[in-house]
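Deviation from plan, reported transparently: MTE complex.
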Amino acid sequence: MAFRWKNDLTDRDVTDEAVWLNRRQIMGGFAGLGLAGIAGSAHAATDEPNSWEEITRYNNFYEFGTGKDDPAKYADAMTIDPWSVRIDGMVDRPGDYAFDDIMAKMTVEERIYRFRCVEAWSMVIPWNGFELADLLNLAGVKSGAKYVAFETYLNKDEMRGTRFPVLDWPYVEGLRLDEAMHPLAIMATGIYGRDIPKQNGAPLRLVVPWKYGFKSIKSVVRITLTDREPPTSWNKANAREYGFYSNVNPEVDHPRWSQASERRIGGGLFAKNIPTRMFNGYADDVAGLYDGMDLRKFF
Ligand code: MTE
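Because the crystal trials were delayed, the predicted structure below was used instead.
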């Protein structure tokens, strides 16, 4: 769909969400959705985007602490300039790709996605980003590659949470190659047209909207193409509770809580409880990736 923008706007150029919402109304409904329409259904009313404050002050980024407000307080210490992403493994052009060079080659567009944390809260976030497939194609995926492994930046001086063995640092994640190549999978570099804040995973983080939020690994420094299913942080921490796939699925409960509904963050204390949808509402686009798979076994 139309309405792409380069993410080089300054805070001054954009947003105020009031302006943004206005523009959306002028565009006549949700713009820039491409494959993933979230308007026009009974859910439209509950799918209002969250505010900048909600999105940037209620976070999970354990490298800065386990409290929801820790990342906003402490992520400022993280150095993000210069930044490069090492792309290696089964690729034609392995190397360190400077963030600025990546941005010069990618098409940044807006994607308004629902975001569902495994902890049963959710938001709607207007990301700016580019398709992960475009980045992988830049490096050239070799035939035989089956999975993509991701790794987060690690600096114990800058990331106070990593002084504690909450997880096995660095934070790592993974996708099957066909999941990674799916057009809904993006590398986000902005929110509401501004550069993505550090607490949300600056300067670039994965967003896989049909999976639980922990798959959407932040502040990525390394992407490795491989033929083996890569280890993932939460699976290493507790394999019974967190599978490799972690597709949003209201029918498969977490061992300690139900996944049938979610608390939509918003309005301060007045978070709404709404039903969770299969693949977070993106089933039409992604269910085919899992044809014939037992989603209880491969949770
Ligand atoms: N990435 C890293 N490196 N460290 C983390 O602790 N938390 C994950 C995911 N990515 C996490 C991470 C979890 S549990 C969620 S729900 C989302 O980031 C939260 O993203 P947000 O803070 O932008 O909403």
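The chain has eight helices and twelve strands. We consider this an acceptable substitute for the interim report.
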